[in-house]
């Protein structure tokens, strides 16, 4: 049973390999900055170690497979703009070290998709192409970008369309990057596109799974390392759905039950499902939802998984400190199954959550406020999402 064995060994390693100080990079919605933080897992301190000026704010950032490059969105809120004439822009940086991050390049979608870039993710497999999604554009579009030999963003190699009413907010790959899954929030679909293994360009649409209900609105999607399951969080209904994946086509099929990110009796339309992500060993799935009103807390949940990705059970569902603003974005650590960073935009802070040893609960063990200038839509300029450098 090789799969079970490696799943078990990974789980053990993930809880014992533990350096003392870990660094994170945090993106923003408004402020033109990337913040680097240091988290010490011995004394639980969380400090700002660099405030790096950038040409644009990035509502979503992601790291290359070797963590030498960072990719981001050039984010502008254009949801109320019905005559937008500018295509989405994506940015790439070189990480020299945690306090020196420099711009490599900005790339623009070449078709007039006219949305704002909202999400970006590099493939962990060669040729390490980078995939971007725009939002509020008509039609909903995406962009495939190549990288040079060092991993720096190079050029747009493909612009592609979803549907006129689409707006993709999150993407994930099958383990070998044979396919790309796209969570189409506005279109209410989960797409499966074939990926050309040589170029990284997208090929045919292999599947379009409708959201579990008309107003579910899939927002983020993540793939279990076994390749046998994927998970999606629904923005509209604040639910987590899981899907088994066909071993030949990589196309997902939804399974029962769905898991609510809200206590029973709560009005789902007052919340926006946000992120979901796997713990280091993939033993746990973490997920969050945000409250639409400041002063009302959002929720965080953890689910226990089998080695094949089946959800065993919900471990806990707990209020977050604030609504999360438009964030409450969660990123589990890579050095342990037990830690995750959570960003807030109501006040503008980053928290570190630690799960108890048996996974039955989690607590905030560190927090740093980065409350910089927001605007009419964003209470604080900070904090969009965080990524762990180590
Ligand atoms: C959209 O913007 C263009 C360029 O600024 C302008 O010429 C056009 O009249 C605008 N259309 C509408 C419907 O506002
Ligand atoms: C997008 O902007 C271009 C100008 O850059 C304009 O010609 C086009 O009509 C716009 N598309 C939509 C769907 O508004
Ligand atoms: C980070 O990199 C910059 C630029 O290469 C360099 O000047 C600085 O000394 C480095 N800092 C550390 C802590 O290594
Ligand atoms: C998208 O909208 C345009 C303009 O209304 C229309 O010409 C086109 O057929 C639509 N495409 C799809 C896939 O519905
Ligand atoms: C980062 O630096 C900018 C420019 O000096 C400043 O406006 C901003 O408040 C700083 N952010 C934090 C969290 O200190």
UniProtKB/TrEMBL annotation:
<dbReference type="InterPro" id="IPR019405">
    <property type="entry name" value="Lactonase_7-beta_prop"/>
</dbReference>
<feature type="signal peptide">
    <location>
        <begin position="1"/>
        <end position="19"/>
    </location>
</feature>
<dbReference type="InterPro" id="IPR050282">
    <property type="entry name" value="Cycloisomerase_2"/>
</dbReference>
<comment type="similarity">
    <text>Belongs to the cycloisomerase 2 family.</text>
</comment>
<dbReference type="Pfam" id="PF10282">
    <property type="entry name" value="Lactonase"/>
</dbReference>
<protein>
    <submittedName>
        <fullName>Carboxy-cis,cis-muconate cyclase</fullName>
    </submittedName>
</protein>
<dbReference type="InterPro" id="IPR015943">
    <property type="entry name" value="WD40/YVTN_repeat-like_dom_sf"/>
</dbReference>
<dbReference type="GO" id="GO:0017057">
    <property type="term" value="F:6-phosphogluconolactonase activity"/>
</dbReference>
<keyword id="KW-0732">Signal</keyword>
């Amino acid at each position: 049973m090789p799969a079970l064995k490696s799943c078990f060994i990974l789980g053990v390693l993930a809880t014992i390999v533990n350096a003392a100080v870990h660094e994170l990079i945090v993106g923003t919605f408004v402020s033109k900055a990337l913040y680097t933080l240091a988290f010490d897992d011995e004394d639980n301190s969380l400090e700002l170690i660099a405030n790096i000026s950038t040409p644009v704010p990035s509502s979503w950032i992601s790291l290359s497979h070797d963590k030498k490059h960072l990719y981001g969105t050039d984010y502008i809120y254009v949801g109320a703009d019905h005559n937008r004439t500018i295509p989405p822009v994506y940015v790439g940086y070189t990480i020299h070290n945690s306090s020196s991050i420099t711009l490599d390049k900005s790339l623009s979608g070449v078709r007039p998709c006219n949305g704002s870039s909202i999400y970006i993710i590099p493939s962990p497999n060669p040729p390490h192409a980078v995939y971007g999604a725009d939002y509020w554009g008509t039609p909903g579009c995406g962009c495939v970008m190549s990288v040079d030999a060092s991993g720096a963003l190079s050029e747009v190699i493909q612009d592609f369309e979803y549907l006129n009413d689409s707006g993709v907010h999150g993407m994930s790959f099958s383990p070998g990057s044979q396919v790309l899954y796209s969570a189409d929030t506005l279109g209410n679909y989960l797409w499966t596109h074939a990926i050309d293994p040589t170029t990284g360009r997208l090929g045919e649409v292999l599947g379009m799974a409708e959201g579990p209900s008309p107003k579910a609105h899939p927002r983020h999607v993540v793939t279990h390392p076994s390749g046998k399951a994927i998970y999606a969080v629904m923005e509209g209904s604040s639910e987590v759905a899981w899907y088994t994946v066909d071993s030949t086509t990589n196309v997902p099929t939804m399974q029962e039950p769905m898991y609510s990110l809200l206590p029973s009796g709560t009005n789902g339309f007052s919340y926006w499902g946000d992120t979901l992500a796997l713990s280091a060993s993939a033993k746990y799935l973490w997920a969050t939802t945000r409250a639409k009103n400041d002063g009302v807390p959002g929720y965080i949940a953890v689910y226990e998984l089998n080695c094949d990705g089946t959800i065993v059970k919900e471990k806990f569902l707990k209020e977050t400190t604030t609504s999360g603003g438009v964030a409450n974005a969660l990123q589990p650590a890579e050095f342990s199954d037990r830690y995750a960073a959570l960003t807030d935009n109501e006040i503008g802070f980053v928290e570190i959550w630690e799960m108890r040893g048996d996974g039955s609960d989690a607590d905030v063990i560190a927090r740093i406020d980065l409350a910089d200038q927001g605007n009419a839509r964003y209470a604080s300029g900070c904090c969009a999402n965080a990524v762990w450098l180590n």
